[in-house]
């Protein structure tokens, strides 16, 4: 026989480290041995905290009944219980959190008030723009001598008005 192997003959397969026997290898077209796949990588601390706080744990309530609740809910309940049982740092933390919530509510109210005022001012500003447009048309139609006189009078009036407002603190 020749030294060449027949193409139809199977190659010899060495069984060893990272080389399982043929009958135990995963065959193409069959069901995957790992259908859910590799778990996603956690990218940052916020994701890690969110995953761990959303997990459910068994806890006992005041009556001794075991319930499943999220870690976040269990943590909040434990914090409130500690604050009630005269734990100073926990109590201070809750006061600060409450103050932050109050401040954010006040800021939201201020933002709403500013939006209301700007809506009112925008309707007033459109009226002012119309009046300004009329004055500009009159200005263009004036003779140059009248324009100069009118401009000097307006400068005086504006200076007086600004002086009044800033001096009196309006």
Explain briefly what this protein structure is.
This protein has 170 residues and is mainly alpha-helical.
Total beta strands: 2
Low-confidence stretches: none
Estimate the strand proportion.
5-15%
Helix content: 55-70%
Q: Can you put this structure into words, describing what you see?
A:
Helix content is 61%, strand content 6%. It has a two-stranded antiparallel ribbon. The chain has helices at 45-54, 71-84, 88-141, 144-168, and strands at residues 56-60, 66-70. It has 170 residues and is mainly α.
Give descriptors for this structure.
6% strand, 2 strands, 170 residues, mainly alpha, 61% helix
Secondary-structure map:
Elements: H1 45-54, E1 56-60, E2 66-70, H2 71-84, H3 88-141, H4 144-168
Antiparallel strand pairs: 1-2
Helix pairs in contact: 2-3
């Amino acid at each position: 026989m020749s030294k060449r192997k027949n193409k139809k003959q199977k190659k010899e397969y060495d069984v060893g480290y990272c080389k399982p026997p043929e009958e135990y290898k995963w065959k193409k077209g069959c069901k995957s041995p790992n259908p859910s796949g590799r778990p996603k990588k956690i990218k940052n601390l916020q994701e890690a905290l969110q995953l761990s706080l959303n997990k459910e744990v068994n806890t006992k309530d005041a009556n001794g009944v075991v319930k499943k609740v999220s870690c976040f809910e269990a943590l909040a309940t434990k914090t409130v219980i500690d604050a009630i049982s005269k734990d100073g740092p926990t109590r201070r933390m809750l006061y600060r959190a409450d103050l932050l919530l109050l401040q954010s509510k006040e800021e939201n109210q201020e933002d709403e008030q500013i939006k209301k005022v700007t809506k009112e001012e925008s309707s007033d500003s459109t009226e002012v723009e119309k009046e300004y447009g009329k004055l500009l048309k009159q200005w263009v139609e004036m003779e140059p001598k009248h324009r100069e006189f009118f401009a000097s009078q307006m400068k005086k009036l504006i200076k007086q008005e600004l002086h009044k407002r800033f001096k009196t603190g309006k």
